[in-house]
Write a structure and sequence with these properties.
The chain is of the alpha/beta class and 217 residues long. It contains eleven helices and eight strands. Strand 4, helix 5 and strand 5 form a beta-alpha-beta unit. Bound molecules: SN-glycerol-3-phosphate (G3P).
Length: 217
């Protein structure tokens, strides 16, 4: 399973990249706003800065909702850097745009996916990635990980190439569960990635080893 970081915060991206296990970055307008990016020029520069740090796939989201607007925005984003993946919402015009991008060699991430039916449509249109939002599904009293498993099973059975990118990850256990059910990618906040490191027995064991090692000094 690939690890993406779900943030627009350059310091967090650098920290995750330095671990050596980062395979990509996803952003969205809310994450860009959170780090104070304003204006289309600043947005484009920020995407380029992220690409220059990671040199791996970076999802950049369009804000148009009509076919022509999505295509125009997506082409500009894709021209920024070879690593840009155009993130398109799961709407009727979005599906048309994903098919156009796919036919024209531009990678896409179909976002705001909450059902297997939506994921089938995204795959049919040729999306590179599909992003089910598992935390938000959990928030609405359904099981987000179950949806990842269902989509992964359907894609395997039907031979779709679209990668299942588990999004809206809220904790380290989400990452483990997504790995168990066959997600291709997990996009996570830095805190969830670092949360995978933690176990109290590791801390206790290391403290004891370091204490005993004082005898060698
Ligand atoms: O990847 C989608 C993500 O950014 C949404 O996360 O926590 O707002 O549901 P959240």
């Amino acid at each position: 399973m690939k690890f993406f970081i779900d943030t627009a915060d350059l310091e967090q991206i650098k920290e995750a990249h330095a671990l050596g296990i980062l395979d990509g970055v996803t952003t969205n307008p809310s994450l860009m706003a959170k780090v104070g990016i304003q204006g289309s020029e600043a947005v484009m520069k920020h995407y380029k800065d992220i690409c220059d740090i990671v040199k791996t796939p970076v999802s950049a989201e369009v804000i148009s909702t009509d076919f022509e607007g999505i295509i125009e925005e997506g082409k500009k984003l894709a021209a920024l850097d070879e690593h840009i993946v155009v993130k398109v919402p799961m709407i009727q015009e979005g599906i048309k745009a994903i098919k156009w991008f796919s036919d024209n060699g531009i990678k896409t991430n179909c976002t705001l996916v909450f059902s297997a039916g939506q994921a089938i449509l995204a795959a049919k249109a040729g999306a590179t990635y599909v992003s089910p939002f598992i935390g938000r599904i959990d928030d609405s009293n359904w099981d987000g990980v179950d949806l990842i498993e269902q989509i992964a099973d359907i894609y395997a059975m039907q031979g779709f190439d679209t990668q299942v990118l588990a999004a809206s990850i809220r904790n380290p256990l989400h990452i483990v569960k997504c790995a168990e059910v066959g997600a291709d990618v997990c996009t996570c906040p830095l805190s969830s990635i670092l949360g995978l490191l933690k176990h109290p027995l590791t801390d206790i064991g290391l403290a004891k080893f370091l204490e005993d090692a004082k005898a060698f000094a």
